[in-house]
Design a protein that fits this description.
globular, Cupin_8, iron, 9-stranded mixed sheet, single chain, Jelly Rolls, 2 domains, metal ion binding, JMJD6_ArgDemeth/LysHydrox
């Protein structure tokens, strides 16, 4: 392939020796604010935030053109309930009760959207009190349910999105969400699915974020090794329950205004509050910069399951398979599906490198659209990162104990194809 077709310089996508380079550096407490749309490039975001795994905030200028910011908000910056009811009133939405703790999260129920909006209006009228508690609409797959609506456009910085690329391909799920909640609604302490990146854009309202970089959460665990539900709870001061709390660093605190986008790096635990009536758009995503972190997370999850049921290892013939099943029920993925995840990402990029871009490249939410925007060398970078993780997965003893005959192509053949495609692209 002619290097002239590469949209980015080779120096920019140099092959970093570790996917988590800089990921565990403690922050100074400062979070960069990106103000100017026209002068902030994808390469700068890649270099300064994705690779070093640092948070940042994008100004409201980056979302000015979104349909949701124009149509979902009243003239005084409040949620436009009438417009939302007109467009989505008959939808069924997931709603969490922020006043109830169930295990280490809030219990959820499915409600008609119009019922939730009526509740929200009454909640405001009653000075933010209700016998039903503080209800928070969370994890609504609005884009999937209403694809025809002009809600938002994913910023270029977040286009390299393997999670949604894969789940779109198998038509099972996605990780694109809408959140809506009254002042006082909140999300307990957690790290995002698969230790993915996330971005969150406020359509209206304000949020407060408490962020802890990877590793700091260990100081917040109780004497049984459990993470707290609420990092602001007075109980954490009890050293007999939380013996390492006094060793923890203060969280990085962000107050996010209307229109702004917060980038949360991989593995950063966080707790989030709505300071006003707030609507936000949220994505989780993985790409070549953090796929190794996802792989490390899955290995840790499997090891935890194996410890939990270690006493059944001898009497249970299919113990290794049972461990995979339990891990998938807890995390949403097992090792064989992780292989298929890597395969879909790899084959999409191999196809692009071997066949080039076509008319599909102009369509939204496609791998070709992302590569068309980011440049062909990004496909090479993605393949190099996939090779590293796939090589590690193929050598993993727990993976090799599974029945791999159903995997097509076999891991060795896929690796060979990957390496050949990279070599050919760089000729």
């Amino acid at each position: 392939m002619d290097r002239a077709t590469f949209a980015c310089s080779t120096a920019f996508f140099r092959d970093y020796s570790s996917s988590s380079q800089g990921a565990f550096c403690l922050p100074t407490g400062h979070v960069d604010f990106i103000d100017k749309v026209e002068s902030f490039t994808y390469s700068e975001f890649f270099r300064d935030y994705l690779i070093p795994n640092h948070p940042c905030i994008f100004s409201a200028k980056f979302t000015d053109g979104w349909g949701s910011r124009k149509n979902w908000v009243t003239w005084d910056g409040k949620p436009d309930f009438d417009h939302l009811l007109q467009k989505f009133g008959e939808a069924i939405v997931p709603v969490a009760n922020c006043d109830v703790k169930e295990y280490n999260s809030n219990p959820k129920e499915q409600l008609p959207f119009k019922e939730y909006i009526n509740y929200w209006k009454e909640y405001i009228k009653n000075d933010y009190r209700s016998s039903r508690g503080c209800l928070y609409l969370k994890d609504w797959h609005l884009s999937r349910a209403f694809p025809e609506h002009d809600v938002y456009t994913t910023p270029v910085y977040f286009l390299s999105d393997w999670l949604n690329e894969y789940w779109d391909a198998i038509a099972v799920d996605d990780y694109r969400f809408v959140y809506m909640g009254p002042k006082g609604s909140w999300t307990p302490f957690h790290a995002d699915v698969f230790r993915s990146y996330s971005w969150s854009a406020n359509i209206c309202g304000r949020k407060k974020w408490l962020l802890y970089p990877p590793g700091q959460e260990d100081c917040l665990k109780d004497c049984h090794g459990n993470l707290p539900f609420d990092v602001t709870a007075p109980d954490l001061q009890d050293r007999s329950v939380y013996p390492r709390y006094n060793q923890s660093q203060p969280p990085v605190e962000i107050v996010q205004e209307a229109g702004e986008i917060v980038f949360i790096p991989s593995g950063w635990h966080h707790q989030v509050y709505n300071l006003e009536d707030t609507i936000s758009i949220n994505h989780n995503w993985v790409n070549g910069c953090n796929v190794a972190i996802m792989w490390c997370f899955l290995q840790d999850e499997l090891a935890a399951v194996q410890r939990e049921i270690s006493e059944w290892k001898e009497p249970m013939d299919d113990w290794h398979l049972q461990c995979q099943l339990i891990m998938k029920s807890c995390t949403g993925i097992d090792y064989k599906e992780f292989y298929n995840f890597l395969k879909v990402i790899a084959e999409n990029r191999i196809s692009i490198l071997e066949n080039g871009l076509d008319d599909e490249a102009s369509a939204k939410n496609t791998p070709k659209a992302a590569i068309s925007t980011l440049g062909m060398l990004h496909a090479v970078f993605d393949l190099k990162r996939t090779v590293k993780v796939l090589t590690s997965l193929s050598a993993n003893e727990d993976f090799k104990k599974l029945d791999l005959t159903s995997l097509s192509p076999p891991p060795e053949a896929l690796l060979h194809h990957l390496k050949a495609a990279i070599d050919t692209a760089l000729l």
